[in-house]
Amino acid sequence: MAVCISIIGKDNAPLYLTTADMDKELELQYRVHAALDVVEEKCQPISKATPESKELYLGMLYSTETHKIYGFVTNTKIKFVIVVDSGNIALRENEVRAMFRNLHMLYTDAVCNPFYAPGEPLASKKFDRAVQKIMGGNA
């Protein structure tokens, strides 16, 4: 399903990144980094008179010949980016939303660990295994 899942902190520091193909990890990191500009653009309010949108799911940020990149931002400005193979035409919008909901729940559980220091990269093996299940579509 997904070829890359990334979690970016509110200061744009990477907290977690995993890829299905280690040979393309650098390219996927570039795709995630490029998506941050689109996330910032979508998160800015249009004017001060309009309240900020409560929608956490940002939808498809952009697409390339080989990938579609989707975004999600939490209330605490933590950004989730999922890169999907563009050849996967069976993937629906509600399935991507479900992936983000599951990832958000996993992230919340991981940072609620009393041994986790906020802002540090996520190094939990349990978290990594659960994210790998999301990437494989077994969530």
Summarize the structure.
The chain is an alpha+beta fold and 139 residues long.
Polypeptide structure, described:
This protein has 139 residues and is of the alpha+beta class. It has a single domain (2-136), classed as Beta-Lactamase (2-Layer Sandwich). The protein is built from three helices and five strands, in the order E-E-H-E-E-E-H-H. The protein has a five-stranded antiparallel sheet, with helices on both faces. Strand 4 (67-73) and strand 5 (79-85) form a beta hairpin. Helix 2 runs antiparallel to helix 3 (125-136). It is globular. The protein starts with a strand and ends with a helix.
Key words describing this protein structure:
139 residues, 5 strands, 5-stranded antiparallel β-sheet, Beta-Lactamase, 3 helices, single chain, globular, alpha+beta
Fold topology:
Layout: E1 2-8, E2 14-19, H1 25-43, E3 57-63, E4 67-73, E5 79-85, H2 93-111, H3 125-136
Helix pairs in contact: 2-3
> Sheet with the most strands?
5 strands, antiparallel
Counted by DSSP, the helix tally is 3
Shape: globular
Q: Can you list the strand order of the major beta sheet?
A: 2-1-5-4-3
Question: What's the overall average pLDDT, rounded?
Answer: 88
Named CATH architecture: 2-Layer Sandwich
CATH class: Alpha Beta
* SS class: alpha+beta
Q: What's the assembly state of these chains? A: single chain
- The overall number of domains is 1
- The H-and-E topology, N to C, reads as EEHEEEHH
Distance between the termini: 11 Å
CA radius of gyration is 15 Å
